[in-house]
Design a protein that fits this description.
The chain has 252 residues and is an alpha/beta fold. Helices cover 32% and strands 24% of the residues. Helix 5 links the parallel strand 4 (117-123) and strand 5 (143-154).
Amino acid sequence: MDDSEDRNARGWDVLAPRYQSERGWPSDDLCWGHRVPMERELRALGDVAGKRTLVLGCGGGQDLVALAHLGAVGLVGVDLSAVQLEHARRLLAERGVEARLEQRSVADLSIFADQSFDLVVSVHALSYVEHADACFREARRVLRPGGVLGLSVHHPIDASTCGEPPYAFEKPYFQVETDWAWRSLGGAAAPFRSYHRTVADWFTLVSEAGLSVEKLLEPRPSEDIVWEGAEYKEKLAWVPGTLIVVARRAML
């Protein structure tokens, strides 16, 4: 585990108990981000029923449960945080969902054979990953020909601008690496390192890994507010909060 991964794993281990008890994440349907339409409405992935699925940065297991509800099979989740994975085990047991959980870097999927999965999904996790290029190469390797990668990340415009009107830039759009601490949920004791790449950077990294980008989505905000207060709701009416990328491994 490199320094960045160690920092983020420790951060989530500290934050996870309060995050999961006080905020959490939807699990009835796949949620790509705050105020983003759910997958049943958005249809970013198409039909996932019967598809062998790997979740990168599975956190507390909510995405695994949601994908099971959508019909995905052979579910596997990978995450760095031992505390998050403990929550995932409890949630999966409560919901009667079978999934394999692995504590490891999403940039090293060497425990999985080539062409093991039909679908690889990651929700707001890859902004914490320094070596996203290695992650995407591994994702391509474990996908069968025709398989799909679907990911969402913190939109770089939201990450670069302040939370108060008129939402001016507070860091350069092109600054990738940022060290910070969570401002709530006891996060002051949980340092994180994020990698807020530009939209073009994400497109290039996925493409250079050998995957064909089919969709770049910046969803307009839905009316549903699950976690955030009015201030963040107002910002997301002006600035996209989530970037979604869907790509495919070419058929042989």
